[in-house]
Amino acid sequence: MIAVTILGNNSAVPSHGRHPTAQIVQTDEHTFLIDCGEGTQMQMARYKIKRNKISHIFISHLHGDHYFGLIGLLNSYSLNHRVTELHIYSPDLLKDIIQLQLDAANAKLTFDCYFHVLKEEGIIWEDDKTTVSTFKVNHRIECWGFLFKEKRKPRRILPAMAHQHQVPTASYENLQKGEDFINAKNEVIKNELLTVPNKRGRTYAYCADTAYYEPICKNIFEADLVYHEATYLDELHERAQSRYHSTSKQAALIAKKSSANKLIIGHFSSMYETLEKFKEEAFEIFENTEIAEEGVSYIA
User: Most buried by CB count within 10 Å: which residue of 41, 74, 130, 219?
Assistant: First the structure.
């Protein structure tokens, strides 16, 4: 399972009760934070997010509405005597920025904080169940998207067939890895007779601030859930392009070309007080679209 909780769905200026970008991504074993705009701590408290469970933070780029809340979160961790290590993935310079803020306050973190600089596309973190990959998007400064993917579970054993071919339980682990079974008569029983593939893992793609950029489609192809920025309605597509942002229709087109299952759109300009039109425009191109509402969790 991958669950995404929206903490902030607005662009640079907090307005209309909306907050700058931040999201919580939860798997069966981990809680991740994507971006950390100002107000993120308050939103965590409001929606009862257990922030101490966060061990990895992913910052897409160094525009303030995506990381200005980070120093406050780190400081709060220290004030609450956190000792668990924290890993932060971001473009270069973020470590220097945070260290300057700590030095100015004569402050020292109570926990080890490791900064990992994003340099190239590919897997940046994984365990035995999940991978996190990064991919480039097209923004005014260096900016990255993130793909959270469950690893495919081991092959599923067919009990009746395993019993028929007298497969001992000690061989089940090898069967789940895809290996054939060799019986006492030295006969090879093909794995395909004894197992079937398990369901593929679920995927969530976070497409950070970006102009319309079709190359990302290959990175998020057939994702179960896609978040894509939609700063403007389509009548302002020229403004969106000049500012390296997208419109609602452009976000929907990326989802369609990626064969995604579901799209959520966010990062709305503060010039819009209501958001219904965004969904209406996107729906014309990609029906399974929702507004990324703050406090709502979406399941990949």
Answer: 74
